[in-house]
Amino acid sequence: MIRTATREEFPQLVDIWLRASQRAHPFIAEAFWNARADDMARRRLPACKVQVLEAGRRVIGFCAMRGEHLEALFIDPEVQSFGHGSGLMAHAMAGHRHITLWVYSRNVRAVSFYRRLGFSVVDEREDAETGEQESFMAWSR
Fold this sequence. Notes:
This is Putative acetyltransferase. By secondary structure, the chain is of the alpha+beta class. 35% of the residues lie in helices and 34% in strands. A hairpin with a 2-residue loop joins strand 3 and strand 4. Helix 1 packs antiparallel against helix 2.
């Protein structure tokens, strides 16, 4: 079931974000992610429309949109690769005509995932905080 997140769930969502980020980005130090957990909980998630995916009464992932920009899409690492991310994205795409996002270029799995959904790379930049290349991707209906 996909539903709107409650603020009380934000700590659980930050935990999913943190574990999934560390797993997906071995090229970035864990300390980088740990230092940003509070910002995710206090600033980033509250600024977005956050939808959670529940399975068996357990939140296993979430999608955070700020307007037409995807700020975050994360699935609990314990249940990745079962189509949960695709389901969340299908839900987001059904409610928008256009979606943009930034993704680390070295996160080949994520870049491939978004390409399969019809996103294209339209720009690239260096992330000032990590020195890593990021791809700006866009999708339109």
